[in-house]
Amino acid sequence: MSAAAVEITGLVKRFGSVTAVDGLDLKMPRGCLLALLGPNGAGKTTTVEVCEGFLRPDAGTVRVLGLDPVREGRALRPRVGAMPQGGGAYPGVRAEEMLRLVAACAAAPLDPPWLLDVLGLSGARRTPFKRLSGGQQQRLSLACALVGRPELVYLDEPTTGMDPQARHLVWDLLNALRADGVSVLLTTHLMEEAESLADEIVIIDRGRVIAKGSPSALTAEHTEDAQLRFRARPGLDTELLSAALPEGYLVREATPGAYRVAGTVDPQVVSTVTAWCAQQGVLAEELHVGRRDLEEVFLELTGRELRT
Amino acid sequence: MSTTGARSQSRFEPGTFTPAPGAGRRGRMLLTHARLETSLTLRHGEQILLTLLIPLALLVGLSLLDVLPTGELDSLSKVDWMTPRILALAVLSSAFTGQAIALGFDRRYGVLKRLSATALPRWLLVAGRLVAALVVVTLQVLVLGAVAALLGWSPSASGIAFAIVLLVLGTLCFGALGVLLGGSLRPELVLALANIVWFVLLLAGGILLAPSALPGVAGDLVLLLPSGALAEGLRAALTEGTVTWGPVATLAVWGVAAAALATRTTRLT
Questions:
Q1: Do the Cβ atoms of A108 and B22 come within 8 Å?
Q2: Per residue in B127-144, pLDDT tens?
Q3: Contact A110, A71 (CB under 8 A)
């Protein structure tokens, strides 16, 4: 257990004139669940593909379990499981056949039928890959990443295209992996996924690390004011509520039904908000005072404008 | 959120995922991979049409109907003249065209990348496909040979062993050419090109028409194509029982060149 699970120093990767990763440093200890966050095009997948040995770095060093993923890939691959973005299987292969092939590549694999069952794929065992739904393809890909009982897994946006039940299953699975000592490098767009699961979060943008730390450290560090959050039915008149509050407070509906009150929160403010809601005949649920959530931090760091 | 809650609520027993890494046994990897590749080919309708039904239709049709230029036949029966050429066509169809198209779409679906991320060594990735190609060609030869026998085919016994050598070499050569084409271009383009090449070689590549039937130097040039070399080599072996080294050299040169080029141009996705 000497070397880190992943250790990246000064990684640069260019595609033509585009610099996808621009001097990235990252250290992920063994047994850690690290979430790599960033807007589209930030360099997350490129970083993971360099770690997988699919791409050669233009500069910098990458060590995975102490090995060079390109030169020592053959020694490394049996120890690592990967879930690349967008699946990966023969178009006509049946789900169980594909998993059995990947299992045959490992010395002591998990039982393929059991794993299919756990991932809710037993009904699709004989379904050709191209006829599986997007979420089913994702779950099969996850099964392929785990079946070899690896020390380290790369999961590139594992819950994309999954329904809520499947997402919760994956989160349960990720917790079980971590509890059993598997190192997990996860990329995701879901802030709540990263915030609730990860030991370490690394936010990257334009190929560089712009923030890192534990979820609680990140959210505590990047906040000046506490804020008040609550849920209620969508479409409340936020201007009216702002007017009911003292000067300088701003209320906005972040996503439908999720409201945020920015400004110094004191008992009077909480009382005003709940009273105003009562007046409107609305039940304010999940009333929460405190630090901002990871999504707020992320947007503050990476900007709110849409990337083109 | 509750997902980070107590482990006791997890549906997984502690220790379920405790790492136990390591590569599988090579023989088992090769067997599983080759068996899967074979059964994917055999259950693919278009592949069966290409690799079996079209050669069968040509074999039966041209052996029974009176459409062949009789001048080429000399003293041979039509089925004796036809069968070696159909076997060459069978190799072209499965090892080249079928292989190229399958590889093109496999790449689009990301399977090469998926398998490259496992403990399966790169050479096994190629070996599995080769073994599958050889199994498919064996099945083709058995079916086509059985049907030809029913039509009265009587191959020269002394040439059968050499014909097998040519069939194996032809499979490897066309397989390498198929990987060269299917491993580097977009699948739609691979589909179009692999079918065009199949059709051109069938008509003008020394398979349906004997090189000697082609005008001027065309006949000599066609013998330098892998299709012409395989068809002529098989014809000499199976009708005359002759061992000819020219076709072997031609197939070997094409195969080695294609394989060398393919190792540089093949992309995982």
A1: yes
A2: 999 999 999 999 999 999
A3: no
